[in-house]
């Protein structure tokens, strides 16, 4: 096997039709990273762990994965510099020809993480670069940030989402009352909790009709139209039908938990529906929480759902009790929002313990093109859900005007109560 069949420089491969995947891997000092990378590249494309007949030089040249680079961490060039380390960490970059998967996303994931990656090689996918030809195969968000701004009639400030609490256990009429009281505060969107799907006691279509009536009633009093986002998450045989039935019942946007139904079902849903699709990440932790295996969180809940068409995506923050690294949260937002060819930006929606005391910090971190998603801080506000919404909007307004939350709290009773109860993060 010639060297150019298995190795390539980045400058030579970047303009060709290859996906470049970067993996974190730890090896024992006696293990050769080049041999490991070579076996990985072959095993993920044309070969297996033992030599097999039938592999030709032409197959190697056209269809075999290529080792692009191996980075030592730390960048030690002398073995004596690593003598005391039990394992030696590396970033290994491998390029895969897109002919193997093209737009078939499950096969792309299998190439990236199946076979060797899940057996003989323990590796974590930390970055993924797509060539222009493959990127053009993905539609991305149909509506994206500007489409969602138009939907809720919010021109420039951060948008606001609430999820109905309690999560489950109520009938559509009870949920509609909660919706109505919350919508009176002027919230932009209200969604189902991710735990509520289509149970017998709160059927999807009946719930949509009841909540849409509540939205209209609140609009007549407040002048603000609140958009309801029903959760249509279900098995593969019912998901698309749920989406169509939701739209027919009056829903103007739907939510799906892509971590539960799978990325390819998210793609099928966004391609089938003509209304925005909101992607939830619930249960995605096992994809990225492993230090040495899985997918990094900016890919798992950032780049991948955006490529597959989610118009908005719920993500976590380092501030609500979940030990997420700040750099991962920032990078996830970048994967959702920075320019990516023809792919529209998706709306970063931050949840997980969000309250008015977080608003300034989140906006400073991520900018104005985001959606804040408090749950209990709205439904559990001591003055009621509408007051919880107003407290969030007051905190957003203070950030927009450059006013400290302490000063704003002196002017607004709702915000004052929230700050007294939950505190605030310095901006």
Automatic annotation (TrEMBL):
CDD domains in the cross-refs: RuBisCO_IV_RLP
Molecular-function GO terms, alphabetical: magnesium ion binding; ribulose-bisphosphate carboxylase activity
GO biological process, one term: carbon fixation
Keyword Cell inner membrane: no
Stretches assigned to the Ribulose bisphosphate carboxylase large subunit ferrodoxin-like N-terminal domain: 15-133
Gene3D superfamilies named among the record's database cross-references: Ribulose bisphosphate carboxylase, large subunit, C-terminal domain, RuBisCO large subunit, N-terminal domain
Pfam family, one: RuBisCO_large
Ribulose bisphosphate carboxylase large subunit C-terminal domain segment(s): 144-422
UniProt entry tagged with the keyword Heme: no
Keywords: Magnesium, Metal-binding
Cofactor(s), names only, from the UniProt record: Mg(2+)
Family: Belongs to the RuBisCO large chain family.
UniProt-recorded name of the protein: 2,3-diketo-5-methylthiopentyl-1-phosphate enolase
């Amino acid at each position: 096997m010639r060297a150019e069949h298995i190795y390539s420089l980045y400058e030579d491969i970047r303009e060709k039709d290859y996906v470049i995947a970067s993996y974190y891997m730890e090896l024992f000092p006696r293990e050769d990273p080049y041999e490991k990378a070579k076996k990985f590249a072959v095993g993920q494309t044309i070969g297996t762990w033992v030599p097999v007949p039938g592999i030709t030089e032409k197959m190697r040249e056209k269809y075999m994965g290529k080792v692009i680079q191996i980075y030592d961490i730390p960048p030690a060039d002398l073995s004596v510099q690593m003598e005391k380390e039990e394992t030696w960490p590396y970033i290994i970059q491998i390029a895969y020809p897109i002919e193997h998967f093209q737009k078939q996303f499950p096969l792309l994931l299998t190439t990236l993480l199946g076979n060797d990656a899940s057996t003989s090689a323990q590796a974590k996918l930390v970055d993924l670069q797509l060539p222009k030809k493959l990127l053009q195969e993905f539609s991305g968000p149909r509506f994206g940030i500007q489409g969602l701004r138009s939907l809720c009639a919010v021109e420039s400030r951060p948008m606001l989402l609430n999820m109905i609490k309690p999560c489950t256990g109520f009938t559509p009429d009870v949920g509609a009352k909660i919706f109505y009281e919350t919508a009176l505060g002027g919230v932009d969107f209200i969604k189902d909790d991710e735990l509520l799907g289509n149970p017998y006691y709160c059927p999807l279509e009946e719930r949509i009709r009841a909540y849409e009536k509540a939205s209209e009633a609140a609009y007549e009093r407040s002048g603000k139209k609140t958009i309801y986002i029903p959760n249509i998450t279900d098995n593969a045989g019912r998901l698309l039908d749920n989406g169509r039935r939701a739209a027919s019942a009056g829903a103007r946007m739907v939510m799906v938990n892509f971590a539960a139904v799978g990325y390819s079902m998210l793609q099928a849903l966004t391609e089938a529906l003509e209304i925005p699709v909101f992607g939830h990440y619930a249960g995605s932790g096992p994809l990225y929480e492993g230090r040495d295996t899985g997918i990094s969180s900016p890919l798992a809940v950032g780049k991948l759902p955006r490529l597959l068409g989610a118009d908005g995506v719920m993500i976590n923050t380092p501030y609500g009790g979940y030990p997420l690294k700040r750099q991962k949260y920032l990078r996830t937002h970048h994967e959702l929002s920075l320019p990516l060819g023809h792919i529209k930006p998706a709306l970063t929606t931050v949840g997980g313990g969000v309250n008015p005391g977080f608003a300034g910090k989140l906006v400073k971190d991520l900018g104005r093109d985001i959606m804040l998603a408090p749950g209990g801080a709205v439904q559990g506000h001591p003055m009621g859900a509408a007051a919880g919404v107003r407290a969030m909007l007051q905190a957003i307004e203070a950030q927009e005007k450059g006013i400290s939350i302490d000063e704003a709290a002196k002017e607004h009773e709702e915000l004052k109560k929230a700050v007294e109860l939950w505190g605030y993060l310095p901006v």
